[in-house]
Amino acid sequence: MSGRQIDRRVLADVVLAAVVGALGMGVAAFDDGTDALDLTLIALASASLALHRAAPRAVLAAATLLGTAYVVHAHPGPLSALPVLGAVHTAARVGHRGLAGAASTVFLAGYVATGPGTQEVAERAGLLAGWFLCAVVTGLADRNWQAYLRQTEQRAQEAERTREEAALRRAGEERLRIARELHDSLTHSISIVKLQAGVAVHLARKRGEEVPPALLAIQEASGEAMRELRSALQVLRADEPSGTPALLVERARAAGLAVDLTVTGDERPLPPAVDRAAYRIVQEALTNAARHAGPAKITVRIDYGGRGDGELTIDVDDDGAADPARQPVPGTGLTGMRERVTALGGTLRAAPRAEGGFAVRARLPMGETV
User: Fold this and answer.
1) Are 83 and 20 spatial neighbours (Cβ–Cβ below 8 Å)?
2) pLDDT tens, residue by residue, 140-158
3) Which of 349, 341, 370 is nearest to 165 (CA)?
4) To 10 degrees, what angle do helices 36-47 and 56-74 make?
5) What's the CA gap between 360 and 358, in Å, rounded?
6) Separation between Cα atoms, residue 327 and residue 334, nearest integer Å
7) Which one of 35, 64, 74, 98 is most buried, by most CB atoms within 10 A?
8) Between 76 and 207, where is the model more confident?
9) What's 360's DSSP letter?
10) In the predicted model, is pLDDT for residue 286 greater than 60?
């Protein structure tokens, strides 16, 4: 949750407490017997509502005790129950149904025990009992609604992740299909050309004739085409990393980059998809640093967490020339990195650091390790 959302919630809770307190004190001001103690009890009971998100049970207890003390001391009207109603509702909303019911009973008992008349007390107590019942029911309804929204959001995220995984799987299947087509068509044809050119060169030399330059060029070109085609087929058939992040760091050092590698947590084998993504993220981050950071110091941190943790954390920082005031324009590398992370259900942040330089933060859910 962002800081702005938290600030808005805190402000809303403070406003709620202020409104309830203003209503309670405004009504109490018209009662002839209201004194400073009554106003203090109303103010404290109302102010406690500002903390209902952080400590709902404590707020329920405080509002109930202060509200009951107020009705016992001043014998006010039904609106005196507002702070307790708010606390009962919030307690029921977070699942404390029994405590909400007990608090309602305590307040109603105090209200009935100190009422001025039997009929009037019965009417007011019935009204308050209905209010408290509504507070509990609406709290439970709100709780169920929030649970429904969370489940809907989780299902939507799961569906999105499933679609992305299906797209990656289809892309892999398409690569394999293209590789098979290339192998079945081009490889065979180029092999025949190379073989025939080789036979022609061999026969010419056997007969002591000068080999035509064009024939030698065909032989050499067909051999080069075969080698390049094999390399392309290897890329299409597999997306496996050709090493480890540690090897990437060693290569970067050999190329003249100042790179430090730190590995923490319970290092263990990763699922293939996570392993590939981690390799490519470190590879792309080091490549970008080499291209854009200048003579910078680069730090690579990989955290496996504990055995029970389900997240791999990758941080790549440099202290290069990136300007915090200018956001980078995502290129093919950053876009591909983000697509890999998103397909696994992780998060990625790639942006300039406030103190200068560039930072890549990747969080990859590991699922079940192998």
Assistant:
1) yes
2) 777 788 888 888 887 777 7
3) 341
4) 160
5) 7
6) 13
7) 64
8) 207
9) E
10) yes
Alpha carbons 30 and 276: distance in angstroms, whole number: 73
- Coil/strand/helix, residue 298: strand
Q: What pLDDT is stored for residue 120 in this prediction?
A: 60
Rounded Cα gap, residues 20 and 208, in angstroms: 110
- pLDDT: is 195 or 188 the higher one? 195
| 305-327 b/e (C-beta count within 10 Å ≥ 16 → b) | eeeeeeebbbbbbbbbebeeeee
Residue at token pair 């791999």: 312
Q: Which residues fall within 8 angstroms of residue 99, CB to CB, at 6 or more apart?
A: 57, 60, 91
Judged by average pLDDT, the poorest of 54-58, 131-135, 252-256 is 131-135
When pLDDT is averaged across residues 126-133 and rounded to a whole number, the result is: 70
Report pTM. 0.40
Q: Is 364 helix (H, G, I), strand (E, B) or coil?
A: strand
Residue 292 DSSP one-character state: I
Return d(Cα 326, Cα 135) in angstroms, integer. 51
- What dihedral angle (degrees, nearest 10) is formed by the CA atoms of 151, 153, 155, 159? 180
Residue with tokens 């200048």: 294
What distance in Å separates the CA atoms of residue 295 and residue 173, rounded to the nearest whole number? 42
Average pLDDT on 327-331 reads 66
Token pair belonging to 302? 């990989």
